[in-house]
Each structure stands twice: as structure tokens, then as C-alpha cells.
């Protein structure tokens, strides 16, 4: 059985100072595409046991939107970590930090 291949692309338009102005993403798997203002990409290199990070955001990304973006990213990281490792307790603590972050930045109400 042949392996299925898929491609996820991010096109970045830069200004004269190499700052992202516009970004578009697309997925070959389901032919979806869209415009985005930020992306956080992490790539694990097993051989060197190191993570390559590519973090980009456009000039139009507001601080309020960045707070929401990071809050949601922390929550999804906790979910992914939980699914990958089965470590419920550590995922709980990650979600608790995300809650604290959300409360302190004012994007969610304090409990």
C-alpha cells in the first residue's frame, strides 16, 4: 500500500525590512486555504534532539489578538501533550498555566 502524501504551505510576503506583511496558508489534503496573521511552527529533529522554531506574525497582529493566540496555543499544546504522552497531571498543569495567563492578560474572567 502506497503512503499518502500531503502538503501544508505558508506563503509569506515581506516588506523591505523583511517583516511579514501578509501570510496565506494552504493544505493539499482537503484543498483548504486562508489568510492568517500569525503562525508558530515547531519542528523536532530527532537526531540532534532539538526543536527548530519558526514564529511569524504580521504587522497587523494586535497585542490583544496575540494574547488570545498564545492562550489558545497553550491550551492546544496541553491537549496534544496529553494525547501524545498520556500524562494527565502535567497536561492539567499546562492548562492551569494557560488559565492563569488568560486571566492575567484579561482575555478571560478570573475565577
Folded structure, characterized:
- Strand 1 (8-14) and strand 2 (20-27) form a beta hairpin.
- Helix 1 (63-85) runs antiparallel to helix 2 (88-105).
- The protein has 111 residues and is an alpha+beta fold.
- The chain has helices at 63-85, 88-105, and strands at 8-14, 20-27, 32-36, 38-45, 50-57.
- The strands form 2 sheets. The protein has a 3-stranded antiparallel beta sheet, with no helix packed on it. It has a two-stranded antiparallel ribbon with strand order 4-5.
- The chain is 37% helix and 32% strand.
Short descriptors:
111 residues, alpha+beta, two-stranded antiparallel ribbon, 5 strands, 37% helix
Layout: helices, strands, pairs:
Layout: E1 8-14, E2 20-27, E3 32-36, E4 38-45, E5 50-57, H1 63-85, H2 88-105
Antiparallel strand pairs: 1-2, 2-3, 4-5
Helix pairs in contact: 1-2
**Mean pLDDT over the full residue set:** 96
Radius of gyration: 17 Å
Number of helices: 2
Structural class: alpha+beta
- The topology string of helices and strands comes to EEEEEHH
First CA to last CA: what distance? 52 Å
Helical fraction equals 25-40%
* Portion in beta strands: 25-35%
Q: In one word, what is the shape?
A: globular
With strands numbered from the N-terminus, the spatial order across the biggest sheet is 1-2-3
Sheet with the most strands? Answer: 3 strands, antiparallel
> How many DSSP E strands?
5
Low-pLDDT parts are: none
